[in-house]
């Protein structure tokens, strides 16, 4: 097991890429990381890792680490298509948050997560329990970066999330596993793809977009400062709720009607935790509710579907930007 201090919070190249020389980088000495106010020390590259969020899972698979993964959990969508083959060999422990005992059955040296809630489950701080057993924990830096009052989760940020924070997660995990060159290649690929989106012609007129994740009664709409903000800035549109600093504030449909967005981005989730999870359910609600059916985006059926994973801070953030840009073009609203 690893000699480690607990880590408070953080979250491909080809998944089939062989280990190569960069796999030996971690043998040069321990990796020490400062993350969300805590320090973690990893003495050697982990051989057994459980990732308890889809975003973290897809980073590890993209770094070619499937052979070190002994479990995954907390999925909102099918795995990214290019990672399907590698992921098929990794046990899925749970579709939602796994129990502490279920994770420990895999005898992990490291547990990674995109969000603190998935790492902790019903415990106040499960990281401490892992640490007492010599198991390192890592949560994506996007979970706590620039959070007001040092908080985490969906709380307000002092400033909008930047794509560089996602790059930091990739580089840190690549260092932990002794494959830094793979991390740099993945960061380069993501940076180049997002730059292509940003360099494309902008919509011919200013557009306002609202990002609806889930829940029909009190919808979770993207605020200014999460992954959706990165997507909106890259595509060149305005987030209808850019004046709110929470990641996913719950708002009323009357508040949405007041802002009357030109386009609605609809989360197409495969999980079943709240109402109106998938794209079709969202459209049915929008076109039947007495308030929402009057929205400009609904009257003109201006919808763009994104996976739930595309709307969370991860490598899929770039997918989300590409899909939104393509969706606007299909609607005749792109540059």
Automatic annotation (TrEMBL):
<dbReference type="InterPro" id="IPR050902">
    <property type="entry name" value="ABC_Transporter_SBP"/>
</dbReference>
<dbReference type="InterPro" id="IPR002491">
    <property type="entry name" value="ABC_transptr_periplasmic_BD"/>
</dbReference>
<feature type="domain" description="Fe/B12 periplasmic-binding">
    <location>
        <begin position="48"/>
        <end position="335"/>
    </location>
</feature>
<protein>
    <submittedName>
        <fullName>ABC transporter (Iron.B12.siderophore.hemin) periplasmic substrate-binding component</fullName>
    </submittedName>
</protein>
<dbReference type="Pfam" id="PF01497">
    <property type="entry name" value="Peripla_BP_2"/>
</dbReference>
<comment type="similarity">
    <text>Belongs to the bacterial solute-binding protein 8 family.</text>
</comment>
């Amino acid at each position: 097991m690893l000699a480690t201090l607990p880590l408070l919070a953080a979250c491909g190249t080809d998944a089939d890429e062989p280990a190569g020389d960069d796999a030996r980088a971690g043998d040069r000495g321990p990796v020490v990381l400062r993350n969300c106010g805590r320090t973690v020390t990893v003495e050697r590259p982990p051989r057994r890792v459980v990732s308890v969020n889809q975003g973290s899972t897809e980073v590890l698979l993209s770094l070619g680490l499937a052979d070190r993964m002994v479990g995954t959990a907390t999925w909102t969508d099918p795995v990214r298509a290019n990672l399907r083959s590698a992921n098929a060999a990794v046990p899925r422990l749970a579709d939602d948050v796994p129990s502490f005992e279920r994770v420990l059955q895999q005898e992990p040296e490291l547990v990674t997560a995109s969000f603190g809630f998935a790492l902790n489950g019903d415990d106040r701080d499960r990281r401490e329990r892992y640490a007492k057993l010599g198991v390192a924990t890592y949560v994506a830096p996007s979970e706590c970066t620039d959070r007001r009052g040092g908080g985490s989760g969906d709380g307000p940020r002092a400033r909008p999330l930047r794509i560089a924070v996602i790059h930091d997660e990739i580089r840190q995990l690549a260092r932990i596993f002794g494959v830094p060159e793979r991390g740099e290649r993945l960061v380069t690929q993501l940076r180049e793809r997002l730059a292509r989106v940003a360099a494309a012609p902008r919509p011919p007129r200013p557009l306002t977009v609202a990002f609806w994740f889930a829940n029909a009664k009190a919808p979770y709409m993207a605020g200014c400062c999460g992954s959706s903000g990165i997507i909106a800035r890259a595509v060149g549109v305005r987030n209808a709720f850019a004046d709110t600093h929470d990641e996913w504030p719950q708002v009323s449909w009357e508040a949405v009607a007041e802002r009357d967005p030109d386009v609605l981005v609809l989360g197409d989730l495969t999980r079943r935790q709240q109402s109106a999870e998938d794209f079709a359910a969202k459209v049915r609600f929008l076109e039947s509710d007495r308030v929402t059916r009057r929205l400009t985006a609904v009257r003109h059926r201006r919808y763009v579907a994104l996976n739930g994973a595309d709307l969370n801070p991860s490598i899929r953030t770039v997918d989300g930007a590409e899909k939104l840009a393509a969706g606007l073009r299909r609607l005749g609203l792109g540059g």
